[in-house]
Structures are given as C-alpha cells and as structure tokens.
C-alpha cells in the first residue's frame, strides 16, 4: 500500500476504479483533509430529460468522501465503507463539468463524516451532500 503522499498516484495507476471510471470521475486532489474531483455532465451522467442525474451527483459525492476516508486510515488494517449519504440537489445542469470538494466534519476511530459541495464551472452550487463512512477491519487477503 502506498505512503500517504503517494495515494493519488496509486489510485491513478489502478487498472480500473469501477463506477468512477464508468461516469468519468477524475480525482485531482486526495489528502486526509480535502478531496477534489470532477465529473462530466454528458450522456453517461444525465437523466432521460437531459439534466445531470441526481444519482450521478451522489456517486461523485460518495466517491470523494470514501477516498477522503481512505486517506485517513491504514488500508492494510482497515477499510472505509459508506453507510449513509444524503444530498440536496440545488441547481440543474445540462452539460459541462461539475467539481466536488469533500472535507471531513468528523474523523473518528470507527466513523467519519464528510461534507461535499458540488459546483458548476461558475462555482454555483449544484448539490450539497453529507456522507457517513464506517471504518471496519480490512477483509482478509486471499
């Protein structure tokens, strides 16, 4: 597992990151106190009426919160798993890019709470979310 300063490079080197790859999420900053990521508003992330899908915003929010939690743990001993997320969709968006900034509200031994703000290119709020992450024992490596 990478040292704290190498986690963004480690993440980028993964063969796949699953859902974040599928919807075009790009992580720009990954530290224990701040995660920044972008996501395109395109055919992958729009709902049938042409607007940014609320679920895509939630996926971006949970991705940033989970990665922030990951940056605060020893991943050889623990795993960070989402247990609750809520989101308020403030403004619609039809195209372009959104940017999420996640910051911790609470970093504890067994739980973390992250606040996430998603904004458009003019820094207008599109969505605000709060995500609770559980810190659990890492699964055994086979």
Termini, distance in Å?
A: 16 Å
Oligomer state equals: single chain
Order of helices and strands: HHEEHEEEE
Number of strands: 6
Q: What does the model show?
A:
The chain has 142 residues and is α+β, with helices and mostly antiparallel strands. The protein has one domain (4-137): Thiol Ester Dehydrase, Chain A, CATH 3.10.129.10. The chain has helices spanning 7-13, 19-23, 54-70; strands at residues 26-31, 34-41, 78-89, 96-107, 111-119, 125-137. It is globular. The two termini are 16 Å apart.
Topology, please?
Layout: H1 7-13, H2 19-23, E1 26-31, E2 34-41, H3 54-70, E3 78-89, E4 96-107, E5 111-119, E6 125-137
Summarize the structure.
The mean pLDDT is 93. Strands 1-2-4-5-6-3 form a 6-stranded antiparallel beta sheet.
Primary descriptors:
3 helices; alpha+beta; globular; 142 residues; 6 strands; Thiol Ester Dehydrase, Chain A; 20% helix; 42% strand; six-stranded antiparallel beta sheet
């Amino acid at each position: 597992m990478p040292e704290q300063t190498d986690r963004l490079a480690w993440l980028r080197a993964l063969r796949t990151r699953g859902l974040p790859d599928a919807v075009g999420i790009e992580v720009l900053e990954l530290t224990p106190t701040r995660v920044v990521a972008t996501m395109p508003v395109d055919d992958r992330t729009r709902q049938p009426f042409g607007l940014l899908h609320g679920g895509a915003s939630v996926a971006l929010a949970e991705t940033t919160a989970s990665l922030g939690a990951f940056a605060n743990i020893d991943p050889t001993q623990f795993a960070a798993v989402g247990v609750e997320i809520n989101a308020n969709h403030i403004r619609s968006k039809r195209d372009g890019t959104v940017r999420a900034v996640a910051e911790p509200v609470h970093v504890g031994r067994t739980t973390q709470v992250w606040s996430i703000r998603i904004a458009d290119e003019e820094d207008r709020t599109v969505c605000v979310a709060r995500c609770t992450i559980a810190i659990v024992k890492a699964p055994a490596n086979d």
